[in-house]
Write a structure and sequence with these properties.
The protein is mainly α. The chain has a domain of 205 residues. Strands 1-4 form a two-stranded antiparallel ribbon. Strands 2-3 form a two-stranded antiparallel sheet. The chain has a two-stranded antiparallel ribbon with strand order 5-6. Helix 1 packs parallel to helix 7, helix 4 runs antiparallel to helix 5 and helix 4 packs across helix 7.
Length: 329
């Protein structure tokens, strides 16, 4: 939904003469071989010249800075939203979804590899679109709602930009779930298994459902979709909608968190984590200072805060238990 507002086995990382050594013992995703956000991917080939078919330093530098640039543009569009008029807000909503989604997919390709990013898109967009089509047609699992024509062309009653909005926030949610499981600053290696995979999927679902506590009241008030039928509601949004987000989010999280990929370098997830933190803080402030919706700020703030604290706390407890259970070296 358009609003403002996250592999296989472990392997060692090679490094060239201008790359820092990467710790091969880390935990989920794929690496650009030791490069963090905005860093060069590896040594140049020749004296600073890009040879045909070879990614030279200039090309790698552009690839590294593009997600950061897109993230900054996304934040700027979101800052402009409450200051714009009605038509301007609609345009900004669409542009924000496009830039945020491009940031997520671009960062995924940069940090986890193009194959992982392509698989993420191939999983996320069809699942999100199918859930929305079923939701509009049947009222399940979100409740009874209809989209207006303000968000652009529709297919089967769903604006084509809506699945992109799911993807834009699903990626930071997946990254957050992986980092809550395996650590915030070190490298990440493979997908979670067993109970850890279930916890990661539920964390993704929790992040998405909590984000929607901000999103739905704002977008419904703007007229982008309308709810119908009597039902218990929170801030004008049926409570069953949160259950629907948890259900679809769990499915998405389970599928995406199982995707295999290369290790992610230490410090390689700053962009999506920063956007997730920005979404949380800016949503609380915007609802308090600009939209006059203190109950939305409270419910969304508590929702995302509890998910974050819960995921980090459980991860810390599990890490301590695992460490205690290991035999001494």
């Amino acid at each position: 939904m358009a609003g403002f507002r996250p592999l296989s086995g472990q392997r060692g990382l090679s490094r060239g003469p201008d790359q820092p050594a990467a710790d091969p013992s880390g935990g989920v995703g794929s690496a650009d071989h030791g490069a963090g956000d905005g860093a060069l991917a590896g040594p140049g080939h020749g004296a600073g010249h890009d040879r045909p078919g070879v990614a030279g330093p200039g090309r790698r530098r552009l690839a590294g800075t593009l997600p950061v640039t897109l993230a900054a543009l996304t934040v700027g569009l979101q800052i402009a939203y409450p200051l714009a008029g009605e038509h301007g807000r609609t345009v900004l909503t669409v542009l924000t979804v496009l830039t945020f989604c491009a940031t997520s997919v671009g960062h995924a390709a940069r940090s986890r590899g193009r194959a992982w990013a392509a698989a993420f898109v191939a999983v996320c967009l069809p699942v999100a679109f199918a859930a929305e089509v079923v939701g509009v047609a049947t009222g399940a699992p979100f409740g009874s709602y209809r989209y207006s024509g303000q968000l652009g062309p529709r297919l089967a009653g769903v604006p084509i930009i809506i699945p992109l909005a799911w993807a834009m926030m699903a990626y930071p949610a997946v990254v957050f779930a992986a980092r809550a499981r395996a650590g915030w600053s070190g490298p990440l290696a493979g997908p979670a298994g067993g109970g850890e995979h279930l916890r990661a999927a539920l964390t993704v679902a929790g992040v998405l459902a909590a984000w929607d506590l901000f999103l739905d009241p704002q977008m419904a008030a703007a007229g982008y979709w309308r709810w119908s039928g009597p039902a218990p509601a929170l801030n004008g949004v049926p409570l069953v909608n949160t259950a629907g987000w948890l259900l679809v989010g769990s499915l998405l999280g389970g599928l995406v968190c199982a995707l295999p990929g290369r290790p992610v370098a230490a410090g390689g997830d700053r962009v999506p984590l920063a956007l997730l933190a920005w979404t949380y803080v800016s949503s609380v402030l915007a609802n308090l200072a600009f939209f006059g919706r203190p109950w939305v700020a409270l419910s969304g703030g508590l929702g995302m805060g509890c998910v974050g604290i819960g995921a980090v706390g459980i991860g810390a407890v599990l890490a301590a238990v695992i460490h205690a259970a290991r035999p001494p070296a």
